[in-house]
Amino acid sequence: MTELDNVIVNKNGVFIIEVKYYSGRLYGKEDDFEWSKRHKSKGGNVYVKKVKNPVKQVGRQVYILSHCLRSSGADVWVDGYAIILGAKSPVKSRVILNNTRAIDRVIHTPGKKKLNTGTLDKVCRILDKR
User: Fold this and answer.
1) Which pLDDT score is estimated for 48?
2) Helix (H) or strand (E) holding 1
3) Is residue 47 included in any domain, yes or no?
4) pLDDT digit string (tens) for 4-45?
5) Which residue from 22, 24, 21, 17 is spatially nearest to 3, judged by alpha carbons?
6) How confident is the model at residue 111 (pLDDT cuts 50, 70, 90)?
7) Residue 4 CA from chain centroid, whole number
8) Which range of residues forms the domain containing residue 10?
């Protein structure tokens, strides 16, 4: 089981968009299990907290949704992305989106295989049941 923030289905494919809002600065590497979030309060106190690595989280979500769709008869490619709002992140990854224009770009760029109307309908029916 997993929770998906956003699933977008269009002729260009199936997309998961995980939304993360953090204040402060994120530290970590693409393959780390957890990242550190460092935030300095208005009073000057510094807080450090461990957070889930959104790259790993989206990878798991893509795996689960792909398996769910395939086992229900829709063999489609699923792309996953995380958009990080509010925080600065030095992590460079094709999975990390830095603004809403990037969402528009990825969902409107033709993917591995365009979806025909029948496949689009099948995917939507499967998702509606879930």
Assistant:
1) 95
2) none
3) no
4) 999 999 999 999 999 998 888 888 888 999 999 998 888 999
5) 17
6) low
7) 8
8) 6-19+55-129
- Residue among 111, 24, 108, 116 nearest 62 (CA): 111
Answer for the pair 38, 28: CB distance below 8 angstroms, yes or no.
Answer: no
On whether residue 31 sits in a domain, the answer given is no
Of the chain, the end-to-end C-alpha distance in Å amounts to 11
- Residue position matching structure tokens 């693409």: 30
Pick the closest to residue 31 from 117, 101, 93 (CA basis).
93
Residue 27 is assigned to a structural domain of this protein: no
Candidates 12, 2, 11, 14; CA nearest to 81 is: 14
- Number of folded domains in the chain? 1
Q: Which residues contact 54 (CB under 8 A, 6 or more apart)?
A: 18, 20, 35, 82, 84, 95, 96
